[in-house]
Amino acid sequence: MPALVTPFSKDGDMMEESFRQIIDHTIEKGATGVVPAGTTGEFVYMRTEERKKLLRLTVEYVDGRVPVVAGTGQNSTRATIELTKYAADIGCDAALVISPFYLRPADKGYFEHYQSVALKGGLPIIAYNIPQCTLGWLQSNVLEDLAEIDTMVGVKDSSGNIGHTIELIQKLRGKMSVVIGHDECFLSAVAAGADAAIMASANIMPDLWLDIMQKVKEGKIEEARDLQLSAQTFARIVTRKGGAPPVKAALRMMGIDAGRARMPLNSGGTLTVELRDEIKVELEKLGIIKKKEHKQLKTDLNVIQAMEKEGFKISNLEKVKTSNSENETISVGIAIGPKTGDLGRAFVKLLTTPRNGHEALTVILEPNLAVKPSSIMWPARRIKSMRQASMFYGPVQSGAGKAISRLLGENEIPHDTLNSEVLLIVADADLNFRDRRAVTHATEEAVYAALREIWR
């Protein structure tokens, strides 16, 4: 069941038509229930009247297609009972009730709060444990006592502590349903016996989570594991970056106008440009949006021509050796020549006067350990984001360093060149590639092959 996001306009108004689109999308993708006004729905930023409006809109638009579990938790017991009664009156099927927060009670206070809501609210109640927000834990002994109340039907555990989730499953089995609320722990919880899930990422892909659940029921654990791992990066972004902002960004990429988050969640660097890039790549990987066609690599890179584009004229070419190599992931062009010649002067200037998006960087094996001969590398294609920069000045740089070190270890590099010459590498890589280790390996092989050609 998706913990539905609440679309807000730039001015902070609720976008009703967008909300309807999200409901349709989740139901069409197989969601077996919807949960408005939860944490991902930003209930803490909404007035009680707004929450009532949202709940009524949900019930009217869902129109019986799936159950509606209303987020009705408030800080005070009286307010929670009143909102739960309202949800019952308009036709909601159950209530998700967060534990009181800010001024949090002791275990006895939690019990009495839920007992009162369960007895007076008029709906089946799902308790909601999310200690990272409430700063208090719903312990298993409290829930065991609450399970004696007929209208206490479940607990949603969003703690992210799989040990606690499994303790709840163990102790409440046959008494109360355990609902997993932490996307990263979904497979572990379902395999251990969780009955259902209420998750933020189910706004995007309820079908994937249902597939995992079905595979667990059929005993296809390895297939379920592979599916969980395929979605794990996106699940991690959602659970650790505020829930609503990454989910809304993903929905927009899918063509659904999910609006904005409300202040202050909509600001303060919650969702950076780089994180949006990461979300896009993950959605492409999962096949949720069409993969962007990347430009083909610049093959047969000529490092001398690349340096001329940077404004350098290399005149003593008889003293410079060049080579190039490529594979499916990266293409490199390499030049090596005397420190005292044009190549040496270009080496210094590339390092000291970087061009935006094409900055050169020393090739190192690890911090403060540069390779020999002294080497630099720069991108043939302009770096456009921090994510691309981290890929180029990370795995690509590491692969180049490993190739040079490997040749040194094999005594393939003439010793008289180690201190007298410089090595320049221009590289073009698919910077949207997801597997950083694969990029490192591909770069190592390409640079290794090019250098072997030089010193053959």
What structural keywords apply?
single chain; 456 residues; alpha/beta; TIM Barrel; Ribosomal Protein S5, domain 2; six-stranded parallel beta sheet; five-stranded mixed beta sheet; 44% helix; elongated
SSE inventory with pairings:
Blueprint: H1 16-28, H2 48-62, E1 69-71, H3 77-90, E2 94-98, H4 107-120, E3 125-129, H5 131-134, H6 140-146, E4 152-157, H7 162-172, E5 177-180, H8 186-192, E6 196-197, H9 206-217, H10 221-240, H11 244-253, H12 273-285, H13 303-309, E7 321-326, E8 330-338, H14 342-352, E9 361-362, E10 364-366, E11 369-370, E12 374-379, H15 386-409, E13 421-429, H16 436-454
Parallel strand pairs: 1-2, 2-3, 3-4, 4-5, 5-6, 12-13
Antiparallel strand pairs: 7-8, 8-13, 9-12, 10-11
Helix pairs in contact: 1-2, 2-3, 3-4, 4-6, 6-7, 8-9, 9-10, 10-12, 11-12, 15-16
Give the overall form: elongated
Determine the mean pLDDT. 92
CATH superfamily of the largest domain: Aldolase class I
Lateral strand order in the biggest sheet: 1-2-3-4-5-6
The CATH class of the largest domain, by name, is: Alpha Beta
Measured distance between first and last alpha carbons: 62 Å
Task: Indicate the low-confidence ranges by residue numbers.
Answer: none
How many β-strand runs?
A: 13
Number of helices: 16
Q: How is the biggest beta sheet arranged?
A: 6 strands, parallel
Helix content: 40-55%
Strand content: 5-15%
Total domains:
2
Oligomer: single chain
Classify the secondary structure makeup into a structural class.
alpha/beta
Write the CATH fold name of the largest domain.
TIM Barrel
Q: What is the chain-wise order of helices and strands?
A: HHEHEHEHHEHEHEHHHHHEEHEEEEHEH
